[in-house]
Amino acid sequence: MGEILRPLGKLLEPLTDKIGWQLMALAAYFLGAWAFWHRTQGWSILESLYYGVVTLTTVGYGDYCAKTRSGKLFATAYIGIGVTLVASILVGAVAKNLSAAEERLAQRLKEQAETSGDKTTKPWKELASFALLLLNIVVGATYMAFSEGYWGGKGGWEHPIVDALYWSVVTATTVGYGDLPLNHARSRHFSVVYLLISTTLLTDCIGHVAARAVAAKKEKVLARELSPEMIREMSTIEGAGSEITRVEYLSSVLVEAGTVERTDVDAILARFDELDVCRSGTLDEADIRMAAMKEFYDTPGIIKKEPSTRSRKLLDRFR
């Protein structure tokens, strides 16, 4: 019996890890849409997939939407689940694969620049991210120019190149006006993939721009000259306004640069003070031993509760 079940266990093993659960969540999301919309509005599974992707990427063309009261109630819940949960899973998976391509492109740009003798430091990752987004827009515009323009037949887009470029940018930026209808199923099928890639690339590009701004702010903070007034502001020790410690300087610079919040620094320092039972300003074996003992000594000499497993291990180490 065990020999029979072992292959089945290996077959089901992917479903028990993180990726397996993510795939199951995505399948349930799209199949749920198809089950509901096919019964209420007669949509095919590909039409439901198109609706689901347009929804979770927040593009929202409006060409496929709820027509009934029950449909609007379902869409309300579907949007909430899709935008908050499913989008993070799906876009995260796409981003993981695209980031590898971005890294390779950035490295290639850097190597070509070094080969040509350009030794200046440039934002290669930002350039690679923007290049991939631009390439994606060009690919989307090219496909739609033929699919809805030149091959569109009667009712096709009037200005294929301009309309396709317009559609590609409106879609990639998740604006989604919906004024250019997709008249062919092939265009909607292409949009399913294009939407996922373009929205991920846009998010990545914006993230790089924001990170660049934060990095510039950090450089500005580090390069500035200190004044007596700034030292007094950085000092957290009462009565020591004319001097600051390494910790005070570090925490002040990190907070001002936007790397951490002041509340985070205060919480970390408070935790240090809690562990520093001897109040020596440093952590040593004695502090760790006494901190472990405080878990089960509420008052000196009176044991109120059993020590935790972690406390026992710490105490055994120092015996």
UniProtKB/TrEMBL annotation:
Output the SUPFAM superfamilies linked to this UniProt entry: Voltage-gated potassium channels
Give TM regions.
20-37, 49-66, 73-95, 127-146
Pfam families, alphabetized: Ion_trans_2
Q: Which InterPro entries does this UniProt record tie to the protein?
A: 2pore_dom_K_chnl, K_chnl_dom
Which keywords appear in this protein's UniProt record, sorted alphabetically? Ion channel, Ion transport, Membrane, Transmembrane, Transmembrane helix, Transport
Q: How does it sit in the membrane?
A: Multi-pass membrane protein
Q: Which residues form the Potassium channel domain?
A: 26-90, 134-208
Task: Report the GO molecular function annotations.
Answer: outward rectifier potassium channel activity; potassium ion leak channel activity
Q: What is its main location?
A: membrane
| Location of the protein in the cell | Membrane
- One of the record's GO cellular component terms: plasma membrane
GO biological process, any: stabilization of membrane potential
So what family is this one in?
Belongs to the two pore domain potassium channel (TC 1.A.1.8) family.
Q: From the Swiss-Prot or TrEMBL record, give the protein name.
A: Potassium channel domain-containing protein
Which organism's genome codes for this protein?
A: Pelagomonas calceolata
